[in-house]
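ok, trying the design again with the full structure, not the truncated one.
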């Protein structure tokens, strides 16, 4: 080989090695939430209940814990009709500072009472880093609300908590931003995260938000974390909750979270979207029939 062409092939080889090394350095690490980092589904353990990995989990309860009678009545019907996890907010993110803000610690005590009565694990929201320790003492699952999904100091702290987290998608959060928010919690050492699609803000005003069911498909493809749907906050009207619960199951969600209240007309928060126990029971019957059908489907 002529000297010139020998030199050329050496240069080419060096360039290839260098480019490879640079590419290696620049290649982003697979995100912890991604299927590249972990291909099999994560199963989240909420008390004795497993979320993800093929089951369909129903979380139900009032928007807010209001008093003992309301919470215990709703909890008993939720249990009777087959809910696996109880919900109820003690710290409420309200648009108006004059609206009911939740009972705080008293609400947490009532949730603990409802858990004793029904045996169901409870999920409740934390809004402030200073309340995490207290909420973790009562909750089986800690909820991050839609408005706090990019509260990074809250997320960092929740990464260090030994409690599963149910994280709502924000009203204006893209799927990528939602996943990056979950990444904060996993990066902190807590891989027990459930993602919750709860509707996003669009130009449409006929419903409270617009339920993005395609997000379930995209998320299930991109991440190993369980994905549940909250049709109640998505539509804001109890009439549409049941059909969208069915759609959530059909699209391959790992469960739903719905609001329910013994006397929705008296609810201090979100009464219009809360199912009565009777409506909840009808929804559960339909979901049960559909779950049997779903066994053979491939999700999304
Ligand atoms: C809730 O689930 O109680 C709630 C406030 O929902 P979001 O954060 O999705 O509005
Ligand atoms: Mn609500």
């Amino acid at each position: 080989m002529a000297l010139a062409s020998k030199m050329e092939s050496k240069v080419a080889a060096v360039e290839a090695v260098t480019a490879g090394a640079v590419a290696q350095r620049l290649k982003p690490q697979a995100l912890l939430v991604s299927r590249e980092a972990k291909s099999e589904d994560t199963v989240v353990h909420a008390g004795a209940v497993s979320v993800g990995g093929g089951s369909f989990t129903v979380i139900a309860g009032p928007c807010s814990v209001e008093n003992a009678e309301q919470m215990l009545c709703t909890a008993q019907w939720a249990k009777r009709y087959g809910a696996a996890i109880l919900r109820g907010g003690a710290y409420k993110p309200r648009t108006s500072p004059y609206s009911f803000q939740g009972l705080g610690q008293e609400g947490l005590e009532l949730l603990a009472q409802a858990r004793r009565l029904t045996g169901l694990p409870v999920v409740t929201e934390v809004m402030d880093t200073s309340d995490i320790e207290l909420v973790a003492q009562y909750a089986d699952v800690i909820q991050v609300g839609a408005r706090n999904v990019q509260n990074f100091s809250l997320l960092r702290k929740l990464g260090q908590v030994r409690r599963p987290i149910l994280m709502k998608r924000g009203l204006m959060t893209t799927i990528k931003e939602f996943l990056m928010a979950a990444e904060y919690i996993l990066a902190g050492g807590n891989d027990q995260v459930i993602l919750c699609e709860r509707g996003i803000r669009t130009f449409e005003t006929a419903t409270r938000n617009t339920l993005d069911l395609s997000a379930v498909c995209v998320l299930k493809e991109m991440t190993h974390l369980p994905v549940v749907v909250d049709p109640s906050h998505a539509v804001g009207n109890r009439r549409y909750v049941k059909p969208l619960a069915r759609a959530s199951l059909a699209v391959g969600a790992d469960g739903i979270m719905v609001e329910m209240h013994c006397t929705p007309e008296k609810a201090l928060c979100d009464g219009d979207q809360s199912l009565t126990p009777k409506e909840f029971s009808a929804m559960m019957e339909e979901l049960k029939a559909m779950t049997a059908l779903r066994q053979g489907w491939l999700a999304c």
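Keeping the full-length input from now on. Residues 63, 233, 259, 269-270 surround manganese (II) ion (ligand 2) (CB under 6 Å).
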